[in-house]
Amino acid sequence: MTSPQPKPFAFYGRVSTEDNQDPESSRGWQLTRATALIQPHGGRIVTEYFDVGQSRSLPWQRRTQANTLLSALRNPRRGFSAVVVGEPHRAFYGNQFGLTVPLFAHYGVELWVPEIGGPIDPDNEAHELVMSVFGGMSKGERNRIKLRVRTAMAAQTLLEGRYLGGRPPYGYTLRDLGPHPNPAKAADGKHLRGLTPDAQTSPIVRRIFDEFLAGYGLFAIAEGLTANHVPCPSAHDRARNRHRSGIAWSKSAIRVILTNPRYTGRQVWNKQRTDEVLLDVDDVALGHTGVMRWNARDKWVVSKEITHPPLIDDETFEQAQALLTRRARAVDRQERQRRARNPYVFRGMIYCAVCQRRMQGQYNHGAAYYRCRFPQEYALANEVEHPRNVYLREDALTDPLDEWLASAFTPDHLDQTITAMCDAQPTDTTPQTAATQATIAACDAKLAQYRAALDAGADPALVTGWITQTQAERTRAETDLQTTQQTEPRRMSHSQIADLVRALGDIVAVLRDADPDDKAEVYRQLGLRLTYQTETQTVRAAVDLSAHRGVMVRVRGGT
Questions:
Q1: Hey, how many other C-beta atoms are within 10 angstroms of the C-beta on 99?
Q2: Alpha-carbon gap, residue 216 to 321, rounded angstroms
């Protein structure tokens, strides 16, 4: 008489940094619990799925090993007939059990949990209640861990002034302060580190504060440092800034230094936070994703005592903050006045042909100009021959441009223009729409196969579950398709475009007499883009009427 074959199991476990445990020891503990559960029933583990570093808040579909396990369920030759988890509160978080167990039931794979004492019965209310409790416990445990960690870090910053990691600010470097105060981390050879002034960059920080308080602006300071060949922060520390070009100093880099209280010798924490936002508001089952955001200044945690050598004193820092605040208020006031008094017809539409940047509006002697200011140091660093200032007067461009636009709507050219506008409308289906339509077609094919399986005598209960799941998938795809089609631009017929154009009447008069804001809106609706070539003093004007339509307009002299 032959002995029965052992039942093959797959094992799933998970551990992450938020659990504060060694991955290998945690895996061994969970594997031991799973083995102890299935051995008396003749089970043995034939394959393992263990997620390391994956947060429990991630749904199974977004965890690397868990998603691989779900994919294996679809394979009839998967090699196992049941799955055992080591610890349910590590495997399931919140409502994840209710979203995952139907897949096991659908593919006929048992799910074993030590706390249940065997396989879970999807129709057993007690089993579902127990697993829901574990999901809630898991969510509560994670929240408690986050609260304890944040409270400890705030206390260590406020009371001890401890350096909590991250890149050192420009002007400082790290030094070794001896073994870590945590005995467990010290046993692993970890050391505590602190900030010490960098001999090369700390004088630059003092220079920035001195020049700013002496009346220099952020741009002037940045331009002076670049001209003196002082490496900017990303160029000084390339190992931590490979994603940045490191070409020259910027105003934002100067502002960050001027607003960093660490230069007073105090430690700062909680300048940023991580908010959890829904990955997809239309499918909450996909879970959340972390988004880094800046905290308000009153949320920062600053140490009470000086913890590292200061580069500036408190009085200098406060003077710099007060000056920044006054300048910001003055700029905001001037900006509001300028917007109310000085409208720009071509705002955001004029580009410099040399550097391809948008030109900025500026009023001089009551006339509107567009300027591209490009520091010489930036031009040299980028190997671009760019004049220091490029100016274009607005009224030198308005009339020739309006005449060019109006020429397309004269009786001789009107029909040709309307045809071009009609042909220029998008005809191809977007990739998102095509993918959604493919999903719907695949669901229809599956439904046809399932109905054929029913006619062939397949298990009605099993096939009905498949049909329900596929129909739900098809419904979601149809909803996505409707949403996409509502946001996509609709094609207009030749007659509809002709009616709109004729309703405008005399285009020349409309453009000439229109309010500047209304005229600017007309240009935006046309998709107008103007590129100014300073060497030839010409502007290339293009609108999105067809694949290519443009004109060269002389703005210094004749048209």
A1: 16
A2: 14
